[in-house]
Structure formats: C-alpha cells, structure tokens
Amino acid sequence: MVLPAGRGSSCIELSDQKADPPMSISRSFLASVSAAVFLFAGAAPSHALKLEWTEITKVPAPNPLRQSQPAPGGSPYATAYAPATPPHKPGSADPMALVAQEEITPAATPQQHARAKAETLGAQYNVPDAQTPAAQLAAVLDDIDAGRINEALTARNRMPDNLDRRIVDWRLMVAGGPQVPTQNITQFAASAPHWPSPKIARTRAEASLAAANLPAGDIITAFGGTAPESLQGKIALAKANLAVGNNGAARKLIQPIWHKELLDRDMERDLASSFSRVLTREDYRARVEMYLYRDRTQGAERLIAKLSRDEQAYVKARIAQIRGNGNAEKLLNNLPRSMRNDPGVLFAKIEIARAKGDYLTAAKLLQQAPTDASKLYDPDEWWNHRRVVSRQMAEIGKVQLAYDIAANHAAESPLEYTEAEWHAGWYALRFLNNPGKAETHFRHIAQVAETPITLSRSHYWVGRAREAAGDVNGAIASYQKAGSYHTAYYGQLALAKLSITQIPVPPLPQITPQDRQAFNNNDMVRAIRRMDAAGHHNDTLLLYQHLARTLPTNAQVRQLAELAESKDLHQWALMVGKLAYEARPSASTLAYPTNAIPAQTRITRGVEKPMVYAIARQESAFNPRAKSHAGALGLLQLMPGTAKATAKNIGVSYRTSRLTSDPAYNATLGAAHLGELVEEFDGSYILTFAAYNAGKSKVHEWIERFGDPRDPRVDPVDWVEFIPYGETRSYVQRITENLQMYRHKLENKPLAITMDLTRG
After folding, report:
1. Dihedrals phi, psi of 623, to nearest 5 degrees
2. Is 619 a catalytic residue?
3. pTM, 2 dp
4. What fold, for 609-758?
5. Which of 25, 445, 533, 748 is at a distance of 20 to 30 A from 482, taking alpha carbons?
6. In this predicted model, what pLDDT tens digit does every residue of 543-569 receive, in sequence order?
C-alpha cells in the first residue's frame, strides 16, 4: 500500500572490624540479619550517611528555556525557540532504557557543592592502600571466584584494614551464598555505604535469613515491618506469617509469586504444600493460565488436576492449540458450556486464525474480547495480538477497525501500554484524520514513559496532531519538548520541525586539577586499578556502573570512560556514558565515544565514518568480540557469509577468526557492506539500515507492501513505523539518531535527519 502523503520530517507547515567465622544459628545471627534488613530498607538511623551520599551526587539542573535567532530557510511557521529542558525523571520503568538500572541519582544541587560533599564523604570513608603485592589480593579473589569462600574468609581475616580488605569484603558480598556471614555484609555496608551494595546486600541478607531455619517470630522480627525484596525473602516471610496464623499476610505475599513467577518444580511443589491452606482453586487457575500464555504446556499439565472438570477440558484444548494439534479447533468448539465464552478460548482461536493468515477473522474475534484487564490474565499478551492484527487491518485499508482494535487495548506494562497508545494515535491521525483523538492517545504515552526515546516520541506526535489541527503555537510547544531530547530520533525530527540545524549537545567536559585529584582519590577508582593489577579487571564492572551513575561531575565520568578505553574496553566506555546520561541529561556527549573504530579502518567511498560509528554502537555496543545468537560477529556484527562475500568483492583475503580478533578488519568489511547496500538502494539510508538488520529481500518486500520511501508521495516517518519487525523498526530509528550525533561529534556537521530520511 502507499502511505499517506506528506513528508512528516519537514518544517512546520500547517498541513561495602573483622567478621566472625561462620557461626551456628544464634541470637547474634538474628541481630546481624535484622540489622541488614533494616539497614538496606533505609530504616537504620546510624546510616543516615547513605542519604548524604545521595545528596552529594546531585547535579545542576539544565539551563532554562532560551530563545535564539530564527534559522534561515525555515517555513513561515517555523520557530527558532531552543527546545525545552526535558523534565528529567531518574530511573526508568521504560524498557527502552539504554542500560538496566541499579540506582539512579536524582538531579539537583550545584557542582561545587556536590564536589565538596564528595570530598568530605570520601575522606570519611577512605581506606589506605595495601602495601602488599597485588598477587596476594589475586589469590583471595581467585578463591572467591572458585567458590572457596572459607579459604577467602580466612585470608580476609588476616588482612589489615586497607583497600584490599574492602575489595575482598565487597566481592564476598557480591558472591553471596550461605558461607558468607551476614555480619560481613552489614559491616561492609556500614564502612562503605557509597559502594554499590545496598540492593545486593539486602538480597544476600534475605537469602541468609531464608536459609537459617529460624523460628517464625524471629523472621518476622528481622523484617521489622519492611517489605521483602527478594523471592527468597518473600517466601520466608510468608511462611513465617503462616506459621503464626496470619494467613492473610501470608497470602498477600505468596499470591503474586504463585500467579506470575516461573519456579523450578521443587520450589513449586514446596509452595503448593506449604501454602495449601491459602492457595485456592482460583489461584491454581491463575498459575495454569500463566503457563498457557507463556506456551509452557508441561507446567499447565502438572497442575491441571487442581482444576474443575470443565476447566480441565479447557486447558486440554488450549494445550492442543499451543502444540499445533489438528484437533485443537474441535476441542475448543466442543467445550462445556461454562467455558465456551472464556477469554482464553477466544485467545486460542485468535492464535489459530493468525497461524492461518486469516487476519480478518482474528480482527472480528478481537472485537469480542474483554477490555477489563482483570479478565485477561495476561493483558500484555492480548495487546501483542491487537498490535499485529491492527497493523494488518491498516495495511489493507480497514483503518477504523485497526483503530478500534488498538484503542480498546488493556495493556499494563509501560512498554506495551505506550506501544498501544501510540498505535491508536497513529491510526487516528494519519489515516482517520482525527487529530483530537490522536493527541489524547499520544499524550497518554508521556504519562508513563521515562526515557528520551519514548518521551520524545510522545511529544513529537502530539506536535504532529496539533499541527494537523491548525494549532501552530501548540505544535511548536510540543516540538520544543520533544527537541529537548536531542539524542533521540523523534527529538531530532522535532528539531528539524523547528528549523534548528545544530544539535544542542553539551560540550565535552573539561577536566580540572580538582576533578583529577578527586577521581584519583576515590576509593572505588583505586579499587578498580588495584583489581586490574591483580588480574581481576572483569570483576570491576559493577564499580564502573555505580561510578557512572554517582560521580559528582561529568569531568570525573569522562575520566572513568577514559580509564575503560585505556584497557581497550570501548564497550565499557559506552556503558559509562549511557549510564551517566540516564542520571543527568548534561552528560549526553559522553554517551557517544569516538575511539572505538580503529584508525586503520578503510572506509568505502560513499560511506560516512559517522555511519560506521552509528552501526557499531547499535550492533555490538563497541564490543569487538561480540557474538549474536544468530551468529553475527564482531564490531559491526557481520554474518560470516556476508563478510566472506564482501571481502571477495573488495579484494581482501577472508578469515572468520579475524572478525572478532581484528576490529579494523571487521569495520573495514562492515563499511564495505554498507557501501554495497547504499548503492543497491540508490543512496537510501532508510532502506540501507533496514537491510543491514533484516536483509535485502525483506526490504524489497516492504517496498511492495508499503510503498517506496524514496517516493516524495510517501512519508518516510510513516514508512519506518510501518516496518513489520519491531526490532528493525527500532533499529532504523536508533541508527538514524546515532548518525546525527556522530556527525556532530566527529565532523561538527549540522542536523540532517530530514535529508537522511529522504535520500535516494
């Protein structure tokens, strides 16, 4: 099909003392566990210093909205207002977040105050360097890695109170296990609260508590009213409550686990036996449904006897459908009357229709589906059906049906909810010409999204809806909000709408003598260097991650990234930059390192160096030894067959091992392959990026289905969104946004996203 006319990327036009050795269960053990639980729940007044660490890691707020001169050549409605400062939300429920969170530093106070606080705290918790050879530390760390915890504890107890002992205590805490005394964990956290420990320590303490076989009352006392955070802790507290007759509290803890968690058979059997008094038939039904929605038929079969006879017939029919048995439809159609209208039956019939390619039948069935999430067991899986089927309906021109299917979703997770609301808004705006309804859906996205990618998407499309409704000022305001997320695809499209030609990237932070001294004195940085000298650099990853989030200045974060790069760990440098950027927007430039592509790489004529960086950042995160599940290798994730053919085309000898051992070789072949794709698709970057991810044949298929993005009548923004593979759709957007950032960083070139989308 041909997409709606109009190029959406154009400017606005209205259209961490020595510990005792392992001990038997005793009151002192209970006391140490209780201290751990309270400590890591933030309830111990003696650890208010942890709050100070949070405070000193705050950073200055970004500059307020400012106004600049209009850019030449913009439309009459284009504005040169700088994009609004993003309303930064630390942490992320958003699955599109660049790196998984541990803890995120909130934004706030001036850098000089932060640095002063950091220096004060650093001095308070500082420890002297070890005066012994690094080999001695290496031997203890080797014991920990090999699980020889008693040997490591013996060696640790002979150590003076210095950096090496702090490192060992931290590694013991991370390793965990019943041999690590809880007292060690709590003492480490008290002496080094600024190390990456609270969540790990809390989990380890709860595990020790669960394994200790304490009286129920002691377990309840240990938690002291705080909520368990680990699965083991929740089960231990639930069992304790059950033992003292508090069935309601036990059920409240165990029910979510029983309904949602995948457990091994022994644990499942233990919970079924332990909580037989509080688990009802409805709870067993919920667990069976969990198995069915995840296509885990053996799990469902294990529990089927706990259900009614009618429910058992239903489960057998569902299992037949999941396994693709030929009698599945017959079983579904001949269910007992009490089960015929169960949503799970509808779900199974939709899956059968989709498997046959009968999307119209699937659409009609979806119209009968409940919209009450409580009736669906797994609302997000239902949305997945709605997403696929609604896109099929839009493709064949049944756009109202596509909208109805999407808009009536009951998605719950942030990822699925934002996808559902976006789809409904897109259909309403671009195909039903209803900008008011579309804006409502697009605005819902920002209410749950927390990352630049998704927030910019929300604000950009609100802008598009307002623009379509003739609200120029409203559109400008929305594009300003979107443009504040300048690293994101839709933020960059919004900048283009505002005729802003320079991406507002903060400059690379300059390292002052004070920054260098503070960084070198930091005990975690010293620990990284000491562990590296001991041959345990790989054990420092958590320290890098924690420092990236908590170092008080971007200049210190820059030194951390440079430390990683000095070890040729460009992927760690990227990780540091991404985490720092998540903690504060002013660190965005650090999320785009520029030393990962070897200087000796030969880049094919017609291929931009920023493009090679853009691809490598997304494909391997600059890990030259990366291997994908599909077999792609190295920096630019080349399939061996593709690499071999490309090597032949450019007259280079081929050796598969070099794809992961020689980054320049990999990048040379990757750049050459990009050149081949650019040529095949007449210079189209959209098609080149899509083909690099999904293959050339798929791209040609999509051109037939959705039109050609090189055609001026086709909106390339819509074309990208129409790509059926979610991975490829996101891939094209991520490469495009990376390209803009690397052009700016490597060549100081202006924003050219509009041109990139319309090339060819």
Report:
1. -95, 105
2. yes
3. 0.85
4. Lysozyme (1.10.530)
5. 748
6. 999 999 999 999 999 999 999 999 999
